[in-house]
Design goal:
The protein has about 325 residues and is α/β, with parallel strands linked by helices. Strand 5 and strand 6 form a beta hairpin. Helices cover about 25% and strands about 20% of the residues.
Length: about 325
Amino acid sequence: MLLLSLQISLAKVLLAPDGLFATTQLARLDPSSGAIFMPSTTRYTLIEVGCSDWGTLDETVLDKHAHGFLISFEPMLDKFAVLMARGTTRYHGPQHDMAVPIGHHHRRGVVLPLAVSPQGGPLNFTVHRRAGCSSLLNANATATSTWGRRCQHVLEHRRVESISLAQAIALAGPLPVRHLKTDAQGVDFKLIKALEQQHPGLLFRRVLSVQMETRTAQCTPLYEGQETCNEVLAYMRRLGYSSNHNCPSPMNTEWCERTMQFYHKRFGSFAAVLESSGSGSGVSASQSSSRAARAADGRSRPSDHRTSSQAQAAGQYRRAARTPSK
């Protein structure tokens, strides 16, 4: 399956001229499916790319969904530490010196200190004094928006490990991805395009709803090479997704970024796909498993250790995530 391409030779600890690097285990995987270990009652997954430390799905959404499991990615180690600290509180309250399962910041969620990039592999990451500006891309020095001005103060450059969006989805195993939220600072749409080039149709088969940041055509790009909202909207519609709103008018100069939400057309709205339950969820785990197998470059189909009732995508999922306006 797709996840097999993640296997690497462990390099232990490396003292390089410009940094200290270490290889360590980040999570437990099910050897039969290559998926993150999840509770047996899990029926669907959520994926969040670029969490930072506020407005994250583990705080705004996950507690409402007893059958959902969240897989989060945050490459900035200070933000990753904040998220992991939440796990200790959620498992043990005010008690000190207590351990939690590896990678867990929630009983039904893990956070991984990895970036998600178009191709995967080690990459340079620019950290800004305003953490929300940090990106795999270089900030545009000519950006004039409020956030464009905030993103001109570089703190340092780091080397981070990354996986592709296809590999991130593979960590969900055969389960449906009910919601994919990306806040990857200019890389969002590049992840979608790379996935479609690598595995045509995989996104639409596996992911019921997508939320991503875009930039409006009337403003200078915040990051070099950042595509416009109109480009994103047209591309996602070609893939089969619908959206409840259009990009801001070019005459509206107050909007420089727009959070866009996409969903499978048969649901009628973005909210409906998140609220659907039972057979109305549209994609069962068994369907997702067979479809993922067909898209996995001919590799063997991952086995599903769950019962058929557990594997049925169900349960209510109401979006409550906050997305900062920039």
